[in-house]
Amino acid sequence: MKKTTIVIFILLSMLSAATAKQVGHGDINVVMLGDSNTWIGGDDCNDERGWNKWFKDFFKPASCRSYARSGATWTNTARTKENIVEDIPVLGDDNVIYNQIMRLRLAVENGTQPIPNLIIIAAGTNDAWFNDKRPNVFSSDAEKVFENEGERFTARPVNMMTSLAESVRFGCELLKESFPAAQIVLLTPLQCTATSIENIKRAGNIIEDCAKKMNICVIRQDRLCCINRNKEIKKRLFTSDGTHTNAKGARRNGIFLSRQISSLLIKEITRKNKN
User: Fold this and answer.
1) What is the pLDDT, as a whole number, of residue 274?
2) 214-221: average pLDDT
């Protein structure tokens, strides 16, 4: 091998290592809520099929815990109630982000979970996919739900929050009341082959619009992440079944989200310092 080639190889290796360099956040306790693409990473975020394992490896937080459940939706139903003991891997009236929040609150209260500094919510796929089981999912938008921004939304019964927009506002305001110092980041659903890109975008738009109303950071996974519905239909590249990430897709997504969220945290700190 020529010396020039060797030098180029070394430089490229150094560049690759620098690009993949982990960002340390040893003073941040991270909590994750969500559906199956977070759940498959495990409660301790150690399974390589889940993006949260790779996020944890590269973000390097003080702690990282997932309360996600397979089949979970943002959207509540008329039968949703507080239920912190149910643990089912499929769609259900109580398998909702609201009950993940309630489990998180209990864990903090009993001392098994540090108070979170960063709460990441990655959900919306099942809302878009099973909209026939959540008939009111698209019945409201952010403009309608935030007509009265001064209202304490969490004073309402959870089973009245039967649209995606209502459920997002309700859940985020509940988190803000419970953990006022925490930074919240919402992840819109990834593209998938299980439902149309139009449904995924529609759910993502509602989540993004609600986040903006509450000054919450949001990342559009359907636009920015590696999973492309049309490509996955032809050949499984980054998913195992068109919806759930394989180890390769999870790694790409987790590292990407680690960098994006690190950047968002820096911007948020700068904004607060200016104020």
Assistant:
1) 58
2) 97
